[in-house]
Design a protein that fits this description.
Layout (H helix, E strand, L loop, with lengths): L3 E5 L5 H12 L2 E7 L2 H8 L4 E4 L5 H11 L6 E4 L14 H29 L2 E5 L12 H20 L6 E7 L5 H16 L3 H25 L3 H13 L6 E4 L1 H12 L2 H13 L1
Parallel strand pairs: 1-2, 1-4, 2-3, 4-5, 5-6, 6-7
Helix pairs in contact: 1-8, 3-4, 4-5, 6-7
Length: 277
């Protein structure tokens, strides 16, 4: 079993919180990176080290790096993220920028800041992607774009760091019972109410309602628990020869297989049928 310090971003809830707690059980010394003081205080009462990192704030990233000093890192788990959901035709461009800034550029900024510490510790970078980084459903084009891009960045970075003692691993969960989709639904409702014309409802209303119902099912019934993803992240950090990608959840594995063997047009029809049912 490996040990050492692991920085986990987006650790206030969901996958990030579960990962920090699980890594402590495995013998690592996790640092839970959160944005809010109240989240840090709550996690500290559970015995975790914390640091403040908003992945879009260069000064906070630099301060966290400086606070680490010369301490080596055994791992960096890039988990911070949001989900923006809306028809691409009516998606405010600023929302697209926000999605990419948090889910992609922020991950790169954190990785750049902590690579020297990872090199000192011969650590591993674990990027939390999604099955949405392989299969892009309708209405989440911004989210899918961020995850497809994260997959490409991870592949390039893994090849750049080959021979330097730092590996790069992708985690690709399917539906997870996590607040990200509840927040995405709330954000979508705000955009529909504030930014979208009545025509959006006419063109996409039925699809939006179907996706909303599907998201609710994931959150309440079909989604896996964040702990399951955390355990796979633990495996990725501990394995002597880790895979480059780990699919997590039956739905993720099924969709990945379908995308690999089925033509795009067939996938389009299957996704449309699933949303119409």
């Amino acid at each position: 079993m490996r040990t050492g310090t692991v920085l986990v971003t987006g650790a206030s809830t969901g996958i990030g919180e579960a990962t920090a707690l699980h890594l402590r059980e495995l013998g690592f010394d996790p640092i839970a990176a959160v944005r809010k003081d109240e989240d840090a205080e709550r996690l500290e009462t559970r015995g975790l080290r914390t640091t403040r990192i908003d992945v879009t704030d260069a000064d906070q990233i630099a301060a966290a790096r400086d606070a680490l000093g010369d301490e080596p890192l055994a791992g960096l788990v890039n988990n911070a993220g949001i989900a923006v959901a809306a028809p691409l035709e009516f998606l405010p461009v600023d929302r697209l920028r926000q999605q990419l800034e948090i889910n992609l550029i922020g991950q790169v900024a954190v990785t750049q800041a902590f690579l020297p510490a990872l090199r000192r510790g011969r650590g591993r970078i674990v990027n939390v992607s999604s099955i949405g980084g392989r299969v892009a459903p309708p209405l989440v084009s911004a989210y899918a774009a961020s995850k497809f891009a994260l997959e490409g960045v991870s592949d390039s970075l893994r090849r750049e760091l080959r021979g330097q003692g730092v590996d790069v691993i992708l985690i690709e969960p399917g539906g997870v019972k996590t607040p990200i989709w509840t927040k995405a639904t709330r954000l979508a409702d705000e955009m529909i109410g504030d930014d979208m014309p009545p025509e959006a409802e006419r063109l996409y209303g039925r699809m939006i309602e179907a996706m909303r119902a599907r998201t609710k099912r994931i959150d309440e019934k079909s989604g896996i628990e964040p702990r399951e993803v955390a355990e796979v992240i633990g495996t990725a950090l501990n394995a002597s020869r880790p895979r480059t990608r780990y699919l997590v959840g039956r739905d993720a594995k099924t969709r990945a297989l379908m995308a690999r063997v089925l033509p795009d047009r067939v996938m389009d029809r299957l996704i449309a049928r699933a949303l119409s049912g």
